[in-house]
Write a structure and sequence with these properties.
This protein is of the alpha/beta class. The chain has 5 helices and 6 strands. It has helices at residues 5-14, 44-55, 69-75, 93-100, 137-155; strands at 20-25, 59-64, 86-88, 104-108, 119-123, 132-134. It has a 6-stranded parallel beta sheet, sandwiched between helices. α2 (44-55) runs parallel beside α5. The radius of gyration is 14 Å and the shape is globular.
């Protein structure tokens, strides 16, 4: 991914929030949105970054999909740490944010209102309009790795 200084700066800022919600669309952001949807699998690098984020304090991870939660779980490479990732339908993201008391949201490939301090990232040419954009699932993996690294570093202090 070409370095997007504005996006990296936004990730740096959001990593410092007290309670973070990271929400990623399954299809098109975590897994390529091509071929047979039943064979779609999340990119392993993204799953590993989400595992790191789930293990951090005051950090909740959500996979956003209209698919059944058990189907999403089978298509991901996630550990069971902290109860694992939450699976929510797109319409349930706001309620989850309220439930966990998130002070900021990183939404990747998910249509989100994007409040002050939030980072909303569109994926691909057909992605929902967003203040930031990445090209594909490989770029999503890089973004999630960076966020996990920043958040982990801050949680050590």
């Amino acid at each position: 991914m070409d370095t997007d200084d504005a996006l990296w700066g936004a990730l740096d800022r959001v990593a410092e929030t007290p309670t973070l919600l990271v929400a990623c669309a399954f299809d098109g952001a975590l897994a390529p949105d091509e071929g047979d949807p039943d064979q779609a699998r999340a990119e392993q690098v993204s799953s590993e970054a989400l595992n790191v984020l789930m293990a951090l304090p005051a950090t909740t991870v959500a996979v956003v999909s209209d698919r059944p939660a058990d189907e999403v779980a089978e298509l991901m490479f996630l550990s069971g740490s902290k109860g694992g990732a939450r699976v929510v339908a797109p319409a349930g993201l706001g309620a989850l944010r309220d439930e966990v008391g998130a002070t900021a949201l990183v939404a990747v490939g998910v249509a989100a209102d994007g409040g002050t301090g939030d980072v909303v990232v569109g994926v691909g040419e057909d992605g929902a309009p967003a203040p930031y954009a990445v090209e594909d699932v490989d770029d999503v993996a890089e973004l999630l790795e960076e966020l996990a690294s920043l958040r982990r570093r801050l949680s050590m202090y």
